[in-house]
Amino acid sequence: MTSASSVPFASPACVAGEPFADTAQTYDAILLAGFGGPEGQDDVIPFLRNVTRGRGIPDERLEEVAHHYRHFGGVSPINAQNRALKAALEAELAARGIDLPVYWGNRNWQPYLSEAVQQAADAGRTRLLAFATSAYSSFSSCRQYREDFARALGETGLGDAVTIDKIRQFFDHPGFVDSFVDSIAATLGGFLDEGTDAESVRVQFTTHSIPVADAQRSGPRDRDFGPGGAYEAQHLAVAAAVMQRVVARDGRLDGIGWELVYQSRSGPASQPWLEPDICDRIEQLPGEGVAAIAISPIGFVSDHMEVLWDLDTEALEAAASAGIRAVRTATPGVDPLFVAGIVDLIEERMSAVDPSLRPAATTLGPWFDVCRPGCCENVRAGFKPAAAGVAP
């Protein structure tokens, strides 16, 4: 199950490293993998140390970020959101008669992934199918989770007893894409109902910025996705698919402009990151005749700190200063469309559905069951052992 296989820690259906599983697989449990977040003021700095582990960032600099969390009492909403998502997944699985428990573990805070894997193994659940709460290709949004799985198996000593596969990236699964549509259509329709001219309305699709070098290495290395790699290409394709559905919902919205912007940059000024920054763009919009914007965080599955602070606080303040009407639209959260879509993907993987029959809202998908060699390299640290992908 480890170094002798082309896909470390994989189930028999995926160990050979083919892009798509073609053999039905029985799983024992679902592993819900989250980022994690502090749940009190005393947790904030230890949590941020975990997030930045190995980078030697002193606590004084971490405190500059800590004020985002301290503004909300030191509590990130992400753990409560993952508890709600876990419950929603369990309910949907039960409604379909799928007898799979859901174990939840985080990368950076309790409960940790190693704890979740150990709990599953203690209950005799050794074939795990993972769902990470990030939809797109990049080191931080995909490969790092796969490295987390390998690390958890190493920390628990379960590498020869437990297998971990991962459902395909769900950026363009209809359940994810459709979950954005109602809120955006309602917001844009509301602008028009208020008398705002359609030509002065814009949609700002936003996602977490990442270093350009990481973006360029996102996705398989044998395919040219453009200067922003698979990460940027996927977001652009999803935004276009969402807008097609929004216009189909309300024909008055045809022709409303949109663009992809970025947020939450955290690197040094000398390091190029994906741009433009959402607040920088908002400052420029009045000069382009824009009077109202819908801010849609398509890079996020729930309203965690980057949404509550970077958008609901900083971006909305930037819009108010620019004299622009702004509404932040909904994330998937526990929207029934999103939850059902994830369970669809679980069933798809269990049944090894032929790729030609798998739903995808863009021409980039359906994405792979097994990540390809060299996918989403960490520029700073290179390749570490990872589950659910072909070893480079």
UniProtKB/TrEMBL annotation:
<keyword id="KW-0456">Lyase</keyword>
<dbReference type="Pfam" id="PF00762">
    <property type="entry name" value="Ferrochelatase"/>
</dbReference>
<keyword id="KW-0479">Metal-binding</keyword>
<keyword id="KW-0408">Iron</keyword>
<dbReference type="GO" id="GO:0004325">
    <property type="term" value="F:ferrochelatase activity"/>
</dbReference>
<comment type="function">
    <text>Involved in coproporphyrin-dependent heme b biosynthesis. Catalyzes the insertion of ferrous iron into coproporphyrin III to form Fe-coproporphyrin III.</text>
</comment>
<keyword id="KW-0627">Porphyrin biosynthesis</keyword>
<feature type="binding site">
    <location>
        <position position="208"/>
    </location>
    <ligand>
        <name>Fe(2+)</name>
    </ligand>
</feature>
<keyword id="KW-0350">Heme biosynthesis</keyword>
<dbReference type="GO" id="GO:0046872">
    <property type="term" value="F:metal ion binding"/>
</dbReference>
<comment type="pathway">
    <text>Porphyrin-containing compound metabolism; protoheme biosynthesis.</text>
</comment>
<feature type="binding site">
    <location>
        <position position="306"/>
    </location>
    <ligand>
        <name>Fe(2+)</name>
    </ligand>
</feature>
<dbReference type="InterPro" id="IPR033659">
    <property type="entry name" value="Ferrochelatase_N"/>
</dbReference>
<feature type="binding site">
    <location>
        <position position="76"/>
    </location>
    <ligand>
        <name>Fe-coproporphyrin III</name>
    </ligand>
</feature>
<dbReference type="InterPro" id="IPR001015">
    <property type="entry name" value="Ferrochelatase"/>
</dbReference>
<dbReference type="InterPro" id="IPR033644">
    <property type="entry name" value="Ferrochelatase_C"/>
</dbReference>
<dbReference type="GO" id="GO:0005737">
    <property type="term" value="C:cytoplasm"/>
</dbReference>
<comment type="similarity">
    <text>Belongs to the ferrochelatase family.</text>
</comment>
<feature type="binding site">
    <location>
        <position position="145"/>
    </location>
    <ligand>
        <name>Fe-coproporphyrin III</name>
    </ligand>
</feature>
<protein>
    <recommendedName>
        <fullName>Coproporphyrin III ferrochelatase</fullName>
        <ecNumber>4.99.1.9</ecNumber>
    </recommendedName>
</protein>
<dbReference type="GO" id="GO:0006783">
    <property type="term" value="P:heme biosynthetic process"/>
</dbReference>
<keyword id="KW-0963">Cytoplasm</keyword>
